[in-house]
From TrEMBL:
Source organism phylogeny: Bacteria, Thermotogati, Deinococcota, Deinococci, Deinococcales
Gene3D superfamilies assigned to the protein according to its UniProt record, in alphabetical order: 1.20.1260.10
Signal peptide: 1-19
DUF4142 domain span: 70-199
Protein name, UniProt field: Putative membrane protein
InterPro entries to which the protein is assigned, alphabetical: DUF4142, Ferritin-like
Length: 204
């Protein structure tokens, strides 16, 4: 699987988790996507269709380093937003503890990613992707045990997609600073995935 495909799957990559969640009663209003600036580096040749509600980074660059940074930014922001939602809706101590950990870890990761982007003169996404925002809307309509199951299922699917995406990037990435960031966070994301699976298995 090429890096553009996995970047798209990461920004979309929760469709399986969403399939069992009821649709919201009205569509959300989604603003246009922000602009992006490419940086020089390794490029990929496989195109990916835009499904982000506006020009996606996949439309504007084939640079694998920038694709990783941009998709990771959207992933971090989605994790923070959905986990804040979990703190407001869940009464399950394990789910709440996991959500707080996601907020803490992904806030630090996003801060470090933005510092890297500044050094690379790259403008990254400043909000989750369209499918991630839809996921948030669908989680909003759930409550109680149904929310806990939905949130943790999304966490498992999302972290599985992220692990695959990081590994794909590391097979083609050429910028040593971006590669170092991906290598640093891959074991962290893998740890999140293992914990998410454990918590999900305990829910009824």
């Amino acid at each position: 699987m090429n890096i553009k495909t996995t970047a798209l799957l990461l920004t979309l990559g929760l469709s399986a988790a969403l399939a069992q969640v009821p649709a919201p009663s009205a569509p959300a209003q989604v603003p246009a996507a922000p602009g992006h600036h490419a940086m020089p580096g390794h490029t990929m040749s496989t195109p990916a269709a835009s499904m982000m509600g506006g020009p996606s980074i996949s439309d504007l660059t084939n640079d694998s380093n920038l694709l990783w940074m941009d998709a990771t930014s959207m992933s971090n922001l989605a994790e923070i937003e959905t986990s804040r939602l979990a703190l407001g809706k869940s009464q399950n101590p394990a789910v709440r503890g996991f959500a707080q950990k996601m907020i803490d870890h992904h806030t630090v990761a996003q801060r470090e990613l933005m510092a890297l982007a500044i050094r690379k003169n790259a403008r990254l996404a400043d909000r989750p992707g369209a499918e991630q925002r839809l996921m948030y809307k669908k989680l909003q309509i759930l409550s109680g045990a149904a929310f806990d199951r939905g949130y943790m299922d999304v966490q498992v699917k999302g972290h599985e997609a992220t692990v695959a995406f990081f590994k794909d990037y590391l097979s083609v990435g050429r910028d040593p600073d971006v590669v170092a960031a991906a290598r640093k966070y891959l074991p962290v994301v893998s740890g999140h995935l293992a914990e998410a699976k454990r918590i999900r298995s305990q829910l009824r």
